[in-house]
Each structure stands twice: as structure tokens, then as C-alpha cells.
Amino acid sequence: MTETSADGFAAFHLLPSLLGALRELGYTRPTEIQQRAIPALCEGRSVVGVAETGSGKTLSYVLPILHTLKSLEAKGEAVTEEARPRALVIVPGRELGEQVSRVFKQLTHTTRLRVRAALGGSTLVVARRNVAAPFEVLVATPGRALMLLEREHLDLGDVRTLVFDEVDQMLDPGFLPTADRIVAACPPARQLALFSATVPAAIQGLIRRRFEGAEVIRSGGSHKVVPTLTTVNREVINGKRAPLLREVLAERFTGSTLIFANTRAQCDEIVAQLAVLERRCLVYRGEMDRLERRKNLRAFRDGEVDLLVATDLGARGIDVPHVTRVINYHLPQERDAYLHRVGRTARAGRAGVVINFVTERDHPLLRALEAAGATP
To answer: CA–CA distance from 219 to each of 56, 226, 279, 330, 352 (Å)?
Structure first.
């Protein structure tokens, strides 16, 4: 991880149990966003945190939540009522929700706090069962949280901290009214935290309405790629990408690779090319069976296959430590989409490489990235 403090996490005066768990997990130095956000959240301030992908935003709010809730318990204020969490983390999708839950649970084996999930893709029966007992932290997708609220299976009246994570992903028309309803269901004095790699105009409206007075923290690398990422641009000759892919995959390489395309048809085309090369791969895109998509991601995460072909659905919220290379077989049209894609590698201080297949029509994007300082 990026070294920003000689005192490491101990400088935040976190509970000894949390510091011990961090040492066991190999976390020794906070990143820039952690260095700035953790003290603010531990002091009870509301925060809007904007930082590059892979910079440790999740840990920036997980640690203050666990520290605060365990401190309350130590003072004799334990949670005893069912379905009344003290912290609520709203995530855009199931995959990110499972990832956030894992981060919490890695740190709760010593604090003994209870983390539950209510995520899209699971039945209401499962979600209801997950919140049926007393617990401290709920990780939920917006729609599932709202459904539990409307059916009175969930009570947010004791929420002390409300987090919206990767909020820039939740830009469908139904999100902002849902977010407002979730915020309104929490106590007026609750602490708010919003984290994102980018802040589009629609999210600025949410910040103005519900995060007025929050401390805005932007890391020096926000809207840029991390310094541990190496960028390689390869020109596509005569529109022929397949020979270029064959060359790249023939190079010696350690780790796993994410190959991005813009459409489902392009994904299928890449899969067919890899079959010719006798390279096993899996697919992660929209318009495929949800269970199959989850199965493919799990197999990729577990290292059963080292190539995953994806649309931008795989560009956000997926943290697979052994991804050391991203190939943009087709470059996206927007800068933010590019930043999210390349953010799947070179995470948490690790090295990574992005290889862009570039045609003439991609030059405006590359110029825009360079002008914004978003390239090394």
C-alpha cells in the first residue's frame, strides 16, 4: 500500500483488536484517502471521498464503522433489537456487496461485530432472514434495502453511519429518489459518507441535497490512474485486432488478465478468437444468466481460469488481487469508463499493466486522458 504515514494505522488510535487484525492481513501503511478519511469519520464528521480505483476506499469507512460501533458496545450500548443496524452501507450491485462484506468480516473475527447482507439477486425470503436477528452492520443494494423498509422488515431508526459506496455506478433513474428515501429513514443526526472514483453531475445533486456540510476529500490521484500502472498503446493495423491479441497473449506474463469490449457481440467475438488459440476463458457481461455470471466471476477470482472477457459491467467494483493486466480490446468512449476499467489492476499499491488496442477513432479519448492528467 502507498506509504503516507510513518506511524501507520496506529496513528488513528483505532481499537487494539482492529490494529491486530490489520497486521494479520498485511496492512501496514494507509493510502492517501485512508489517511484523510479515517480520522474525519472516527470524529463523527460526514465525508464525501473521491479517490482513484484501487486506492482503498472500502477500508476508509469500514475501519471507522467498526471502531465506533465496538466502542459503543464497550460502553454498555450493545445492539439488542433485531433488524435495527447501526451502520448501513449501500452498494450498487451484488458483486460489490459481497466484496464489501468480505472486507468487514476479515476484521470482525476479533471485534465480534455482526455483518449482514441484503443484496439484489437473492430472494426476499433470504433477505428477510438475513436481517431477522440483532446485528450491527448491513450491506445492501438500494432496491433491496427499500423493499425491506417498505415491508417493515428493516428499521433504520438506530443508524449512526450511512455509506453510499461507488455511488457513481448508481445512476439509473430510480436511484436518486431511492437514496433520498433511505436517507430520510435514518435519524437526522446520522453521519453520512459517500465514496466514489468519479463524481458525475447527477451525483453532485445528491451531494447538494443530502451531503451539505460534508467534508469533501479528493485524493491527489482522483480522476487519474495510479502511478503503479504501466500503460502500453498498441496500434491496430487495418482494423485487424485478432493478430494483435495473439501477439499480446503470446508474451510471457504472470497473473490474470481482464479483456474489455464495449458490446456483448464484441465479447462473443473475442471468445471465439480465444477458442481458436486454444485459450480457456470465461465471460462476464450483461444479458447472460445471473448465476452463470456469478459462477464465472468466482472461478476467475479463485484462479481456475486466467482470462476473463467483460463489458463495462466488469469495470467497477471487482477486486481480484491477481489481475495484473487489463487489455482494452475495444476502448470505451468516455474517460470515466476507461478509468474504471484500468482500475481493476494496479490496486492497493500493486503493479499492473494496461494494453490499449488503439485505432484512429480512439485518439480523441487518449488526448482527453492526457489533457486531464489521467495518464502516467
So the answer is: 11, 11, 39, 29, 20
Contact predicate 35/8, CB 8 Å: no
Q: Which of 62, 120, 124 is nearest to 91 (CA)?
A: 120
For residue 240, the 8-state DSSP code is B
* Dist. CA 141–CA 53, nearest whole Å: 20
User: Phi, psi (5° rounding) for residue 23?
Assistant: -60, -45
In tens, the pLDDT along 94-146 reads: 888 999 999 999 999 889 999 999 999 888 899 999 999 999 999 999 999 99
**What residues contact residue 71 under an 8 Å CB cut-off, 6+ apart?**
15
Asked whether 37 and 47 are in contact (CB, 8 A), the reply is: yes
- Please give the distance of CA 314 from its chain centroid, rounded to a whole number: 11
Predicted model pTM: 0.75
For residue 310, give the H/E element and its range: strand 307-310
SS (H, E, C) 138-202: EEECHHHHHHHHHCCCCCCCCCCEEEEECHHHCCCCCHHHHHHHHHHHCCCCCEEEEEECCCCHH
